Amino acid sequence: MKVVHVDYRINEKINVNQFYDLLVNSTLGERRPVDDVECLAGMLLNSNLTVSAWVEGKLVGLARSMTDFNYACYLSDLAVNRIYQNRGIGKQLQILTQAQLNKRCKLILISAPTANGYYDKIGFTNNPRCWVLERDSDISI
């Protein structure tokens, strides 16, 4: 495995094309709306904490979060280009995300089933109390 210098950046501007390329070249592309550019743009625009990884000016990793910085931080996307996986980039993105938060702030995420072992390895604990309401649910109030 070739040693490369990874440049980590906090809240660096990322354009939709860079985000798209990262998603389709990571395992997240199959679970994100990559065919909806407007949605991808909104995902970037409305994130209030990003930690990105760059190699030779190319985006190779991203931790994209929404947070209040004090109590809860939802890590919505943790993506690393397949070529750069297994080099500690994902773990470093998570560490740098935590470094931006108050020490009491919880880092929360929803894992793909195949990634459960990864999050356990980097210190997360499993919490079975997550609930998701899909937007197209037929629910009346």
Automatic annotation (TrEMBL):
Print the keywords alphabetically. Acyltransferase, Transferase
Q: Answer yes or no on keyword Transferase.
A: yes
**PANTHER family annotated for this entry?**
FAMILY N-ACETYLTRANSFERASE, PUTATIVE (AFU_ORTHOLOGUE AFUA_6G03350)-RELATED
Q: Which InterPro entries match?
A: Acetyltransferase_Butenolide, Acyl_CoA_acyltransferase, GNAT_dom
Q: Which residues form the N-acetyltransferase domain?
A: 6-141
Q: Which organism is it from?
A: Paraglaciecola aquimarina
What is this enzyme's EC?
A: 2.3.1.-
Query: Know the name of this protein?
Result: GNAT family N-acetyltransferase
Keyword hit for Cell membrane: no
Q: Identify one Pfam family in the record.
A: Acetyltransf_10
**Under which main EC class is this enzyme filed?**
transferase
Query: What taxonomic classification does the UniProt entry list for its organism?
Result: Bacteria, Pseudomonadati, Pseudomonadota, Gammaproteobacteria, Alteromonadales
Entry GO MF terms: acyltransferase activity
